[in-house]
Amino acid sequence: MTRDHHDEEILxxxxxxxxxxxxxxxxxxxxxxxxxxVLLLVAVTGFELAIPYLTRSALDDYIVATSKKVMVxxxxxxxxAFVEEHAPDLIRAEELSGAGDTDGEARTSGASSLYLVRxxxxxxxxxxxxxxxxxxxxxxxxxxxxxxxxxxxxREYDTTGFLRADGLMAVPLExxxxxxxxxxxxxxxxxxxxxxxxxxxxxxxxVLTFAxxxxxxxxxxxxxxxxxxxxxxKVLRHLQRLSLSFFDRNPVGRLVTRATNDIAVLHExxxxxxxxILHDVFVLLGVVIVLLRLNWRLALVSFIVLPITAWITVxxxxxxxxxxxEVRVKVARINASLQxxxxxxxxxxxxxxxxxxxxxxxxxxxxxxxxxxxxxxxFAMFMPMMELASSIAxxxxxxxxxxxxVQATVSLGTLV
Length: 416
Known about the structure:
The protein is 68% helix and 9% strand. By secondary structure, it is an alpha+beta fold. The longest helix is centred in the last third of the chain and has 53 residues, at 354-406. Mean pLDDT is 80; it is low at 100-110.
């Protein structure tokens, strides 16, 4: 089949190291700006990762900060070993003698020893050990809220079921609903202050994220525009040195596309694609490190869908790349056809070739439409599949993590 001058040349490899090195030559004069932009991007990533960490702290340390009772009875070797192993985390507790007793004598449950352990701390223990302790009754199911004992000095309270522990008062969680709003504000004053500090910290991080992102985007845009300026000048100087036969073989519209649209795509690559890839890599590494640090078991559950996501990405990356390259070819053909039609309009009208010129352009335009639709279909399949994989990961985390929160082996903040 004959090949007319509108047809594109055969495209090269999807990734060509030689071409990448040639592009890097244009970036090298502005390397210091790129380095600063990458460092700003790393800082922005750190700020973004700190926000969910602070949210976890707000939940576990203040909003739903609870403790559980640990009871050791004489002759219970497992309970004694549990207490000895985790002694630094345990708070010695005693039951109050009765209603209105906030500073009187306390009593123990027979000869048993009582301790309190914070739920957040308990979530860091071996889940099998915690499950065994719950099964044997060493760790109770009732949750307590720890407050400063001085907060109960204002008036007498019904202290039935309360525990006193090292200057703290352990209130059964269900009893908090019995207090008035003013009493709760006084009892949980430390929690209010803690949440306020975290909220201010998050606001500060958001402001810093905005400022650093603004600087990073501006720096990348300026660098990219300078690189594109150099490339356009280089392209023009190269075109000026070419022979006339080259322009006979290549439509002007295609050359204009190479010098304008394709260079604009390079600009988009520098400012959007490269930045997005680097940002996603930094975020992914940070998330993996943070998740493994918080709870490696929960992290592994969330990683189950990673092989599926990687497979989907590999399969569709080839299709998306081919579809995109086809669209670029069709756009170049449209530009070439339009340029020839407009520059040769006088000849077309003299010889009454308007219908033929129209039909030819309609055919090229239709091919561009079909190529764009194929690209759209690939994206339409890829994005829902990625969303499905993300939803499966969230469902697995809720299923596994929710059960562990109920069993007190994972804190609510870690799950969130």
